[in-house]
Design a protein that fits this description.
Elements (H helix, E strand, L loop, with lengths): L5 H19 L6 H29 L3 H28 L9 H23 L5 E3 L5 E3 L3 H21 L6 H23 L5 H18 L14 H14 L3 E8 L2 H6 L3 H17 L5 E6 L2 E7 L3 H16 L2 E3 L2 E3 L3 E7 L7 H12 L7 E3 L5 H19 L3 E10 L4 E13 L3 E4 H9 L4 H17 L10 E5 L2 H4 L4 H9 L9 E6 H5 L3 H13 L2 E7 L7 H5 L4 E4 L1 H7 L3 H16 L3 E4 L5 H8 L5 E2 L10 H12 L22 H8 L10
Parallel strand pairs: 8-9, 11-13, 13-14, 14-15, 15-16, 16-17, 17-18
Antiparallel strand pairs: 1-2, 3-5, 3-8, 4-5, 6-7, 10-11, 11-12
Helix pairs in contact: 1-2, 1-7, 2-3, 2-7, 3-4, 3-5, 4-5, 5-6, 6-7, 12-13, 13-14, 15-17, 21-22
Length: 675
């Protein structure tokens, strides 16, 4: 029986090209890269060994040489499938994360089959037997090799199932395709051994994996040739798990992207490369990452405070100097923050939370330390991000309500609807806390329409006009209202409920109005013609001017809480607000003072020509049961009676003080719990 070496030659060429390319490429040290490179080498050796066996068998028959290279072929050929399994596993777990019992399950068959191949080659020849004329035949021992191969293929399938969340859909599809290719190669070679398709099939698989997943250049920032955030994430995960004593220094360049927008592509490339070269020159032992466009991170073995101070000084001094680009100079303001990783973070999410928090830091000082950040809050933020998708997919959101009070009427006259979800570890996560994570999750539109449907369902279930409520505020986010399908989505939900559209007031932020497009301007006109009202939210936060008040169909203006705070200390702020309130009155608009948190603030704004007040001085984020009890109590108050709310306070748990709570809720003092 003779073989056709063409497929082995092709497998050899593929393996050599990938080995050369992968070995010279810049890459991180991890289990995944190690197993992939080992699979390339083993498959290449397997193909070359089979070609050598073919050469001796065809031209210089020699049983000793044939058995020698046959052993090399068989041992590497079986090992490569096992290493490919470890590569699959490495995409979900590092080797140190695998339990010891499982390590034995994975390693014992590998060791046993290698020992069996060696022993059979030296003695029994049950796997393959060579004859003096150069021919050969397979024996029953080949079933053992196929059995071990199938065992590891089954483990690959189990890994894909058990760790499916660690594999994106594209990866799962590509890995399933890889398994099918290997099985097809085994089937064809089993039917006709002269076609050596198994090694070629593995080479094709490794080529696909390299192109789609393992290409080192996908871990490199193309502009600076530094590592990007993916290898940084992997490195931090390994360091935390193995308790490696490493430090990082994060360097945030303020206004970097804004400056880059005003420069040419060549100029931006020049500056980025200069910064990268400088960071690499600090110390050859340091690893430099570009995590974001304006965020660079240096990682190194832990140093003492003196060495860290030297590194920070180098960075600080260099960025005090201009960066020369062609014929002009650029100056950047930076924040530099040193963070020791060991025993500081429980998981990589905490590190990433801290890293991204440095992007949003507003410290006046340029050199910061980990003590400047609340790591518990950062870790909670990352946990919220992880729990958010589950809350959206499984509809764990519930509505909360904040009454809008009218000092003139002495009663609650409206309310705002917000949302929250409950997590067993995090507790309640409010809308204010979670929205920044929703905006980055790509789920804002889905969540926004889900909450709008819940709000409409709630409104249609009660006769709020009998309870003295004249309007309800529903916030819409910029991502939602700028969608072309916004009107259709609103109509689809609203048509299911019997609600007067004039009862609903869409709250749009100053930021949305400042970035308003022709699309949303048309949306506002259509919704206004249907009877919906609009409230300009957070007015005074700095994004719009007075023209916004009369250019759009706005019925309500909600003054930002920062302005209320400013009025206590700045007489000019008070004059500005009085003028704004008078202007709104002349334009037949209603005004709402936001963020009222103290009795002094309430008394101050009550003296103004303002229609409504809202804030923690009254009630905020009440659950449905508590809120409806409050409205029923409110409806029984005479219209001309002033309500003494000075005793109403809000603790961190959103509880009411005993005198008000007992009047409204009896012995149940916690408004989060239904009676």
């Amino acid at each position: 029986m003779f073989i056709n070496p063409h497929y082995e030659i092709a497998a050899t060429v593929i393996s050599l090209v990938l080995i050369l390319f992968f070995s010279i490429a810049k890459k991180t040290r991890n289990f995944q890269n190690t197993t992939f490179f080992l699979a390339l080498v083993l498959n290449g050796i397997s193909a070359v060994s089979d070609i050598i066996v073919f050469y001796f068998r065809s031209y210089y028959p020699n049983q000793i040489l044939e058995y020698t290279f046959s052993y090399v072929y068989l041992s590497t050929h079986v090992a490569v499938v096992i290493v490919v399994f470890f590569y699959f596993l490495a995409n979900a777990r590092e080797w140190y994360q695998v339990p010891k019992a499982l390590k034995l399950v994975y390693l014992v068959p590998l060791i046993a089959v290698q020992a069996y191949i060696l022993l059979d080659t030296l003695t029994f020849h049950t796997i393959v037997k060579y004859y003096e004329d150069g021919s050969f035949e397979r024996g029953s021992g080949m079933l053992v090799l196929y059995g071990v191969t199938v065992f590891y293929l089954i483990n690959i399938i189990l890994a894909l199932i058990i760790f499916r969340r660690s594999y994106p859909l594209q990866k799962r599809a590509m890995y399933v395709l890889g398994i099918l290719i290997v099985l097809a190669g085994m089937l064809f070679q089993g039917i006709n051994i002269s076609f050596r398709l198994e090694t070629f099939a593995v080479a094709v698989d490794l080529t696909l994996f390299f192109y789609f997943f393992q290409n080192p250049y996908k871990q490199i920032d193309r502009e600076t040739r530094l590592f990007n955030k993916n290898p940084f994430y992997e490195t931090m995960r390994r360091c935390i798990a193995t308790k490696e004593d490493v430090d990082i220094v994060a360097l945030v360049i303020q206004d970097f992207e804004e400056i880059m927008r005003n420069n040419s592509k060549e100029e931006n490339h020049s500056v980025a490369c200069q910064i990268a070269d400088f960071l690499k020159s600090i110390d050859d032992s340091y690893t430099v990452y570009r995590v974001e466009k304006n965020l660079f991170v240096l990682s190194f073995d832990a140093k003492d405070d003196i060495e860290i101070a030297k590194v920070e000084k180098k960075l600080h001094d260099r960025f005090k100097q201009p960066w020369v680009v062609q014929n002009y100079q650029l100056n950047y303001k930076v924040h530099i923050c040193h963070v020791p990783i060991l025993n500081r973070f429980a998981n990589v999410e905490g590190v990433m939370g801290f890293i991204y928090e440095t992007l949003n830091s507003n410290f006046d000082r340029e050199i910061l330390g980990v003590q400047d950040f609340n790591l518990n809050i950062l870790e909670r933020g990352m946990k919220i991000k992880a729990a958010l998708m589950d809350a959206i997919e499984n509809d764990k959101f519930e509505l909360t309500f904040s009454p809008i009070y009218s000092a003139k009427l002495g009663k609650i006259n409206g309310f705002e609807i917000s949302s929250r979800f409950y997590d067993s570890e995090l507790g309640y996560v409010s809308e204010t806390e979670l929205m920044k994570y929703v905006e980055n999750s790509g789920q804002m539109i889905k969540l926004g329409m889900l909450l709008f449907d819940k709000a409409c369902n709630f409104i249609s279930s009660h006769d709020f006009k009998k309870l003295g409520i004249s309007f309800v505020g529903i916030k819409i986010r910029s991502v939602i209202c700028l969608q072309y399908e916004f009107i259709g989505s609103v109509n689809k939900v609203f048509s299911q409920y019997d609600i007067d559209p004039s009862f609903i007031c869409f709250q749009i932020s100053e930021y949305i109005v400042s970035k308003v497009s022709h699309t949303f301007e048309a949306h506002m006109d259509i919704l206004s013609s249907m009877g919906f009202q609009f409230c300009l939210d957070d007015y005074g936060s700095g994004f719009t001017n007075l023209a916004s008040i009369y250019e759009y169909p706005i019925k309500y203006i909600k003054i930002d809480s920062k302005v209320v705070r400013a009025m206590e200390e700045n007489e000019k702020a008070k004059i500005t607000i009085e003028s704004t309130l008078d202007l709104a009155k002349e334009l037949s608009m209603k005004t709402i003072m936001g963020g009222i948190s103290t009795e002094e603030e309430f008394e101050m704004v009550s003296a103004f020509n303002c229609d409504y007040e809202i804030g923690s001085y009254f009630y905020v984020d009440l659950d449905e049961v508590t809120f409806m009890r409050l409205l029923n109590e409110n409806a029984m108050l005479p219209a001309d009676e002033e309500v003494d709310l000075s005793s109403v306070k809000k603790t961190k748990l959103r509880t009411l003080t005993s005198n008000v709570a007992s009047r409204l809720f009896g012995d149940n003092k916690d408004p989060l719990k239904p009676v």
